[in-house]
Each structure stands twice: as C-alpha cells, then as structure tokens.
C-alpha cells in the first residue's frame, strides 16, 4: 500500500462498528447466507452489516475482510519477498506487484529493501513463477525468504 491511508476519525466508529470488528475476528459463518447469520448474531440487518463493512474498508479502518487460508496445508505455498525499489518508481512498482492475485499484502519500509510483500500460491512452484513474472515486469530482483519454521500466533485487535 502506498500513499497516505485514509482514516475515519475514531468518533466515526460507533458501538455497532466495534461489535462487528470484534465479533468477526473470531470467525465468520460458513452457511448459505453467512452475512445474514452474522448480522442476526449482531442484532443488525444483513444489508446494514454489508454496508458497514464496506464503509470500514473504504475508510481503511479495516484493510482486509476475508478468509485466511493455510496455503501450505492446501498444497500451496507462502513466501515473504522483498525488493529494492527506486523511490521515484515506488508507486508504479507497487501497482505492478499488487496487480498479481498471489500478492497477499504489500508494505513499504525504510530500508534498502523498501518493499515487502507475501506471495501465496496454489503450488510451491507458483512462488518462483510469480516472483519471476514480477521481476520481468519491473526489471527489479525479487528477494525470496521462504518459511523455514512456522510459528502459530493469534492476532486479535479489540476495537
């Protein structure tokens, strides 16, 4: 992500928004009408839940709403990657990198390797193929840092 993030003032988050953020971090129903089921548990209408999630995403209070899959358990792979991107090209390269559906998230850092992102692919070979495509498109090397050991942590933010 590049550029200044658009943030909603804390006053723009009401008790219902907080309840939604807190509840949905613990799971989301797997059912024919998951939004309706989640909304009922939160005592709101399905359309309101969807509208609030869209507003929270648009305001960048939430940066992502969706499932987190263990790619390796499904036969795929994850890899942390980094690039040294000239500052003048950073936004353009970020757009090129982020255009790949395999890019899970992308961060700018104050370091020689100033762009860090995660690749998640359906097969282990997909990591090399995607990184190679990014290198060809940008003309910049993609440094790959494959997982050597997995540590499982739970990350939950109280709204």
Index terms:
159 residues; four-stranded antiparallel β-sheet; alpha+beta; single chain; 2 domains; 4 strands; globular; disordered N terminus; Alpha-Beta Plaits
Please, could you describe this protein's structure?
This protein is α+β, with helices and mostly antiparallel strands and 159 residues long. It folds into two domains: 10-58; 77-146, Alpha-Beta Plaits, CATH 3.30.70. 35% of the residues lie in helices and 15% in strands. The protein contains five helices and four strands. The protein has helices at residues 15-24, 34-41, 46-58, 90-98, 124-138; strands at 77-83, 103-108, 115-121, 143-146. It has a four-stranded antiparallel β-sheet. Strand 2 (103-108) and strand 3 form a beta hairpin. Helix 2 packs across helix 3.
Percent of residues in helices comes to 25-40%
Q: Main β-sheet: number of strands, strand sense, barrel status?
A: 4 strands, antiparallel
Q: Could you name the CATH topology of the largest domain?
A: Alpha-Beta Plaits
- The H/E string reads HHHEHEEHE
Beta-strand share of residues: 15-25%
Shape: globular
User: Rg, please?
Assistant: 18 Å
Q: How would you state the average pLDDT, rounded?
A: 88
> What is the count of β-strands?
4
C-alpha termini separation:
22 Å
Which CATH class of the largest domain? Alpha Beta
Q: Counting H and I runs of at least 4 residues, what is the number of helices?
A: 5
Tell me the structural class.
alpha+beta
Oligomer: single chain
Tell me the number of structural domains: 2
